[in-house]
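Notebook, p. 212. Picked up where the previous page left off. The plan for this session was modest: take the two constructs that came back from the sequencing core last week, fold each one, and keep the raw output in the notebook itself so nobody has to go hunting through shared drives later. Recording the first one now, exactly as returned: residue sequence, then the structure token string.
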Amino acid sequence: MTRLYILPTLLALATTFGAHAADPALDQTIADVGHRWATIYYQTPDKQKDAAYDELITQVQQLAHDHPKDAEPIVWQAIVLSSAAKIEGGLSALHKAKEARELLVSAEAIDPTVMNGSIYASLGSLYAKVPGWPLGFGDKKQAKVYFEKALAIDPHSIDTNYFYADYLADTGDYAKSVEYLQRALAAPPRPGREDADAGRRQEVQALLDTVKKKAAS
């Protein structure tokens, strides 16, 4: 079965939780989703991830349904779907990726800057990793456009810099990839996102080591 490699744009693209000062209950629920995502993505064994993601998908679907005018639950629904697609692979993964894209576009119509540009970073990652026509919607040029939009909103985001660096490495621009990986490592900590930050920094360092080897060869 063909496995699609889709980065879990999901997570951690918010700098902090607490975007809904008028709704602390929603803030707490979104924070719980973020922590659960980080636990699944960074700590749960691969064989157990499918079931864990299915449970989380159900939770965020309900959350988005209950708050249709809030962009953040919709973005998290897309993020979790993207992560599940990475583990699942095959045509079912492509279906999840397409659904994630649709959700991100709908969230963009509500608030394009929500979660510090995570909509565009997530779209960039999807367009960079999903196969192109006729199987999927992947498009490297469009991915770059989205990454640039995300960086314009938050140039210091650990996630956006990491995703863009990964894209640059895939396109063979190793020197520039190293630059953005170093930016990711220098990103400021996100209060309440310590678990996600720790996992992401490990990914950044691992990719940096790989890219430096490729650049030297």
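Okay, moving on. Second construct, recorded in the same format:
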Amino acid sequence: MNETIEYLRATWSKFAPDEPFRYSFVEENWNELYQIEENFGKLINRFTFLAIITASLGLLGLTLVLTQNRLKEISIRKVMGASIQRILFTLYKDVLKWVTLAAVFALPFACCAMNIWLQHFAYRINVTVWPFVLAGLTALIIALLTVSWQTLRVATVNPVDTIRYE
């Protein structure tokens, strides 16, 4: 490799002595082109993780407030014979509705953003809907896991303790 570069440098100085000899490898050029994309991907991953944590904390706070407001209703349902599964479904229904609605609205925007971003590449792939469906399902699972602890705690509380002072 070094001998070849020296040979090219000597040949270059014969034909263009006033111009400096500059060379680079194709792999280095490709790495420089995609370094920006790699840095952008790392940045997006970090902000995505931060957004998931923030959204989960917000969802947990919302669940705490909603379950506290519906504590007497849940206790009355338990006294009337509702099962824990039915109570959990009642509490999950609101969360599932909002997460599903958010996923349905986000899907077209994410698809368009991916297509616009991929247009800048020489070689590109066709964007299918499956990664977005998987992202929506992941969001549902994260939301359910975030909400599960509080809803299970409220669904298993003794109704006598809640309704005692009414």
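Notes on construct two before I forget. Helices lie at 2-15, 26-69, 71-79, 84-118, 130-155, 159-163.
Flagging for discussion at group meeting.
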